[in-house]
Structures are given as C-alpha cells and as structure tokens.
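Q: Here's a chain of 165 amino acids. Please give me its 3D structure as tokens.
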Amino acid sequence: MIILQPFKEEDFDRLISWISDEKLLIQFAGSKFQFPLSHEQLKAYCAEAKRNIFKVISKESSEVVGHAEVYQIAEDTVLICRVLIGAPQHRGKGLGTALMKELIAFAEQDLGIKNIELNVFEWNLPAIACYQKLGFKKVPDGDRITRYGDEHWRSIRMRLTATES
C-alpha cells in the first residue's frame, strides 16, 4: 500500500504546501517548528542525528502522500513522530495504519529496536484507535500539555514493545 523513502530537500516544498496554518503545524510537529514552515527549518531538522525522516509514497499511484519520522530517543527506544497523510483526499483510506505498520517494521527490523513510543493529542480519537489496534498502550504519567492560543491540548504518550506486538 505504501513505501517509505528518505525525505530530501526536493521534498520540502510539498511538505510546506500541506501545512496550511499554525494549528495544523502544531498538530503535526508539536513545538518542533514555527509557522510558517520554511526551508531553513527543514534543513536544520534533516541535519539532526538519530532522525530517520521519510516521505510516504502510495504504491498504487506512485504519488507522495505523506511524511513520517522515526527518532531514536534512547539506545533501546524510538519515537514515531511527525506523521502526516498530506492531502486531505488521501486521509481516511487506511494509509495511516499502513504507514504505522511500516514505521514499526523499520524500527524493529532496520534499527533492531523493540520499544516504540509516540505522542497523540487526546482529541485525535481515530489516531488513538489506530494505535491501540496496533498494540500501543497508554503510558501512565506520560501526558503533556501543549498550548495553542487560549486552548490547552493534552498529549498522551503511548508505547509498543516487542512482547506486545
């Protein structure tokens, strides 16, 4: 359904075009970037060690449909982050689940890591259901608060380990 390929400078404009406003940027990247997203920010991001950054390609159409990252936060743990199915017409078609399966396989097979974590906003119920279906469980005391204007968004930490997958 999907293929992961390295995210490169030639992909910057596409990702920037998908991030239409500050709210979407925060949903996608937390506090990693500032709106508007720029080439300079993405160059610095790509230069950071321990980040495995991907563009997501549909096998059917060969079109780039998303973005994702596997970030090694400890010797035995990665964080799946900055996951986005870009254009709205590609959302809700199972690509997110297929993408998560590929990212889990990359962490386990390519990196040899069995502890996989992610953060998700508590109001993102479809994503939470997807992650739970794949075996992720909420981490006690892993919640954080992100501010957007006058709003406070609770972020839930979830974890998948080899014994759970």
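Q: Can you summarize the key feature?
A: The chain has five helices and eight strands.
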